[in-house]
Amino acid sequence: MSTIRPLTGATFSGKLNKSDVNYRYSENCKNCDYYLNGACRIVEGSIAPEFVCDKWVVNSQPKDKGVFADFYIDEYKKAKGK
Fold it and tell me: HSE-up of 3 (CA within 13 Å, CB side)?
C-alpha cells in the first residue's frame, strides 16, 4: 500500500501557503490558469489579481486579452527555457 504525501508547504486543505510560493505584487495572477474570481486552485486564501507567485502558469484562455497577453506568453516561455 502506497502512502499519499501532501506537497511541501501544503496546509490541511491541500493548498500551498502564500509564503511557500513567493506570492508578491505584480500583474499576473488574473492571467494564470489557476486563478478564478479572487481564488486560486492551488494557493490558500484570497488572491488579488495584481499579485503573482512562483506557481504561475500562463492561462490558455486569458480572461483579459488586452495588450499584455504577449508579455505573459513571453514570460512563460522564458520561465520554461523556450
Answer: 3
For residue 70, what is the domain's CATH number? 4.10.490
Closest CA to 43 of 13, 1, 76, 82: 13
Residue 11 lies in a domain: no
The predicted model scores a pTM of: 0.47
Going by pLDDT thresholds of 50, 70 and 90, the confidence category of residue 67 is: low
